[in-house]
Design goal:
Structural class: alpha/beta
Oligomer: single chain
Strand content: 5-15%
Distance between the termini: 33 Å
Helix content: 40-55%
Largest sheet: 5 strands, parallel
Strand order of the largest sheet: 7-6-5-11-12
């Protein structure tokens, strides 16, 4: 019996009590109870606070309601006992056979175990990384790539239709600085004071020059400044963005849409967004400029959309982009932004409300903190290739994709993290990704060893044979996976999956030390060995499923 099945069974009891008048509550007021694992196993396999939740509406005390429900719960198939605790908690123990059935459920569900339909019917636009195409992906972008892709996988596992989107900033002064930097490199000049340094600038300039010459066109360095800058801008930005895409693909972070900022200005999207807002009475003309009345929705000041010189303000692009996302069918637009965007939240949420949408529902903004690399106890300050920043490429080269993704995804995104390269390169239990992956590899080794000793799941499954405290503890850990996935999706907290996997790996290692899947010596294979092989394989499946949600591999051997 899974916790979801137990919750359904408890609700059936409540509905029956409401229906026969024992419970003074309308049937439609009966909730789906929350079932949780008690902190102390002495309190049973599962606990619910449903009596405390419903008592006031039912016109009774929580404990009296719990005492009314207790014998009915104890009579449920698969329930060994139920008892009232404290002010009205209900603690429930399952029969071994009922608890053990979970192993079969997991194995037969396979990759689908943990998936649910809690977000079915929702269309989510998930935008992340979106770094300017003026250099390699830096460490902050690497964090968003790991977090964003993991969130996309988790939301999809809960039934949402997810569009992974990269906002390609190809409009504005930073691209101008990038082009001038390429021109300086092509001409062998010093980097402009406000330009971009690093070996990659010279590499791109050299590639553009070689391509132009191969095509029979002049060396860009010999052209007049305006012509040379335009050639280097168009070709250089394309090359840089191709390199960024390749980096992210190698990091297992792929996108459905690469949206060009410049298209908002060339397609008339900015004007259409302003017209929509004007129809809603949200636009005011003042001092020769066009303003959005964001103060109506809590912003500290109104925001300029079209400046007095007729040019669009940067915020105008944000306004048009949000409307574009909603027009493409997104029920919810999620933005993953860096810590330097924290002051941007107020105006963005006000803009959402100005369109008649609900901030926090139709628009959600997640702010991430900085990442620091540490090696030999000292901060890693800069990249050999990029010159001034540490890059995704540097991190992957040091520890590999699995360790890099896991370490970036296992922390809450609103906390600053230090990535210890020495730890992530070590084969020790202190290394969290190694600890989880080793648990999976151990499950596969146990399965191979079982086959060699004649233990096979084909011999049948007797769930009642999973009757030790270690079996029960491991089954309880496995049962929590679907709820963890659902919580991670609803709270937008991918790190919950990683932390759960570490707890499951710990429970498995403890179980491995306390039980046996293969017989000793010449002892025959019995039902307990076979049942524990099912349980072992269930752990293997859940570890693999959880790692897949984080974009991390589940190795067969280590």
């Amino acid at each position: 019996m899974t916790p979801e099945e137990l919750a359904d069974a408890i609700r059936t009891v409540l509905l029956a009590a409401a229906g026969d008048g024992t419970l003074n509550l309308a049937v439609e007021e009966v909730p789906l109870p929350k079932v949780e694992r008690p902190r102390s196993r002495e309190h049973g396999d599962w606990a619910t606070n449903v009596a405390m939740q419903m008592a006031k509406k039912a016109g009774t005390s929580p404990r009296a309601l719990a005492e009314l429900l207790c014998p009915r719960l104890a009579a449920l198939d698969g329930v060994a006992s139920a008892e009232v605790a404290g002010p009205g908690f209900l603690n429930i123990c399952l029969e071994a056979a009922s608890a053990g059935e979970l192993a079969r459920t997991i194995v037969e569900a396979g990759e689908a175990y943990g998936h649910n339909d809690s977000l079915a019917g929702q269309s989510v636009n998930l935008e992340y990384v979106s770094a300017n195409p003026t250099g390699p992906v830096h460490l902050g972008g690497a964090r968003w790539a790991a977090v964003g892709d993991s969130l996309g996988r988790i939301l999809t596992a809960c039934g949402a239709q997810v569009t992974r989107e990269y906002y390609f900033n190809d409009h504005g002064t930073q691209i101008d600085r990038f082009a001038r930097s390429l021109l300086a490199a092509a001409r062998g000049q010093d980097t402009p004071e406000d330009g971009y340094g690093g070996a990659y600038i010279a590499e791109i300039a050299a590639t553009v020059t070689a391509d132009e010459l191969a095509a029979g066109r002049p060396d860009p360095a010999t052209l007049p400044d305006d012509e040379a800058t335009e050639v280097l801008r168009s070709r250089g930005v394309a090359l840089m963005f191709d390199a960024v895409k390749a980096e992210l693909h190698a990091f297992r972070s792929d996108f459905d849409v690469f949206f060009h900022e410049d298209s908002l200005h060339t397609s008339g999207a900015v004007g259409r967004a302003i017209d929509r807002l004007r129809e809603r009475g949200m636009i005011v003309e003042r001092d020769g400029a066009t303003w959005l009345r964001t103060t109506d929705f809590g912003d500290d000041k109104d925001r300029v959309l079209i400046k007095s010189d007729g040019n669009a303000a940067y915020f105008a692009g944000d306004v048009a982009y949000y409307l574009d996302k909603r027009s493409r069918g997104a029920d919810c637009a999620i933005y993953l932004l860096g810590a330097d965007h924290h002051g941007y939240i107020g105006r963005m949420m006000a803009m959402c409300a100005a369109f008649g949408d609900e901030p926090g529902t139709n628009m959600q903004i997640l702010i991430g903190q900085l990442v620091n690399l540490v090696k030999d106890g000292e901060p890693v300050r800069m990249s050999k290739r990029a010159g001034t920043i540490v890059t995704l490429e540097d991190l992957v080269a040091a520890v590999g994709v699995d360790a890099a993704r896991y370490s970036l995804a296992r922390a809450s995104m609103d906390s600053m993290i230090d990535i210890d390269l020495d730890l992530l390169s070590s084969a020790s239990n202190d290394n969290p990704v190694y600890y989880v992956q080793y648990a999976h590899a151990r499950t596969r080794n146990v399965a191979r060893n079982a086959a060699e000793h004649g233990v096979s799941r084909e011999a049948g499954f007797e769930p009642a044979a999973l009757d030790t405290p270690a079996d029960s503890a491991l089954l309880g850990a496995l049962a929590q996976f679907p709820a963890i996935v659902s919580q991670a999706a609803s709270m937008r907290e991918q790190h919950r999956v990683a932390r759960y996997l570490e707890e499951l790996a710990g429970a498995y290692h403890t179980w491995y030390a306390a039980t046996r899947v293969t017989p000793r010596g010449e002892d025959p294979v019995d039902a307990g060995h076979v049942a524990r092989l099912w349980l072992n394989d269930a752990v293997s499946q859940v570890l693999a499923n959880g790692l897949a949600l984080l974009g991390v591999t589940a190795p067969e051997r280590m």
